[in-house]
Amino acid sequence: MFSKSKFSYREYIDNQAFYNSHNIFLPSFAYELDLKGYESVCACDFYEDIFCNTSISLESKRNKDDYVVGEYGAIALEINEKYKKRTTITKDLKELVNLIDKSDNFCLMSPISYAGKNRTNKNMRYMYALCVEIDHLRPNGEGLEELLYSFRDDVRRPNLMPTYMVCSGNGLHLYYKFKEPFSMFDNHQIKLTRIKKTMTFNLWNHIADNKEKIQYESINQAFRIVGTRTKRDSLAMAFKISDNCITINDLEKCYKYNESEYRQPNKYTLAEAEKKFPQWYQTRIIEKQPKKSPQFKKNRAIYDSWKDRILKLAVQGTRYYCLEQLCALAVVCDINREELVKDCYELLPEFDKRTKNEDNHFTEADVKSALATYDNPNDSTYCRKLSTIYKKTNINLPRVRRNGLKQEQHLQIARAIRDIKSPNWRQGNGRKSKEHLIKEWQEQNPQGTKAQCYKDTNISRPTIDKYWSISNG
What we know:
Elements (H helix, E strand, L loop, with lengths): L8 H6 L1 H6 L8 H6 L3 E3 L1 H10 L20 E7 L4 E6 L4 H9 L3 E9 L9 E11 L7 H8 L14 E5 L2 E13 L2 H22 L15 E2 L12 E4 L7 H7 L4 H4 L7 H7 L1 H9 L13 H14 L5 H14 L4 H17 L10 H12 L3 H4 L3 H8 L13 H15 L12 H11 L5 H8 L3 H12 L1
Antiparallel strand pairs: 1-9, 2-3, 2-4, 4-5, 4-8, 5-7, 6-7, 6-9
Helix pairs in contact: 6-7, 10-11, 12-13, 13-14, 13-15, 14-15, 19-21, 20-21
Protein name: Replication protein
Organism: Campylobacter jejuni
């Protein structure tokens, strides 16, 4: 059996018949990149350069329940139809090499170290490289040519030259290695998110024929591991593009990030907040309790509505994100997994019919990957901005109209309009009037007294006195 962790372009060319017999072919753009003189590197060399050739390496060893403060590991994910397995990657990369060589499933990882075993924003510690995905390149090599030209384009502001490009199925993953791993404090995460958004737009702007196709990814998005299976019959392959390593200052300068433009002053000082929000101050400041996860449930009609919309509106380039959003809604709308899986596989053939490029079919692998959101929900599953959903799916979701008013003001106006249109709006709500109840009781008890009526109906004596004479005529 061959070693996938040592797989490279030259290895494939030297043993092409062998690899083809094992149903392994070149990924898109590998031939073109080799033709331009870029060197292919195997997974071992690629990840050693990313994680090991640095002053802050991954932790030396990780035992179960043996987390040491200040030591962090990368996290690899292996996904198939039945499970999603997490593997902690340590300094010697043995776990990663073993995963690459033995797994025939879809394997993903981001170039980030984490504290603990969960891939959450809160657990991110260091980013070793910033990765941007490029898809929908124009055919016949034009898109790749334009992308490479964008790194030296003096007419439009040039993009930064990546350290590596990874061919993964139909797209490219651009890796920008940091000179020193970048610490992922909360404010740094916000900064990188904004920079990556601008960076993604600029890169896609050179190669995409439709800006609505641009796909914005989170900063900790996991990508195919080099040497592992892609959606097509190929293995992800890395190419060294340059020796360029970046700093956060390089990103700020190239993509004109001005932190002062985004800084929002606090509405209250801490002393004012203590007086205005005493309960919040006690739990969050004094007791230092973490912010509660917003795990609320929504009406299933939202799930059904989204399913109908993506059936009509999903296109090549947005199909996966439409399905992944359906899986996220299944979590918040409390849809059981069996129903979700059934819905996803019913959408699969319909989505595949919308394939425009024969090398980019919508496959079962996409469904399995989307279902991982349902199986491993996090805070972002519950709280997704409508603008973010629109950017990824190109499906616009209308907001609840309040015309710029707060909810309380909006409801006051709505109630005032209701009272003007129908002053007696409470009538006809189904509840019988006290007069009707008293009359009904008297018809059933013609010889009854007011005291007996009070005992049976629990209607107050003044009300009984008021309607007793009316009932008796």
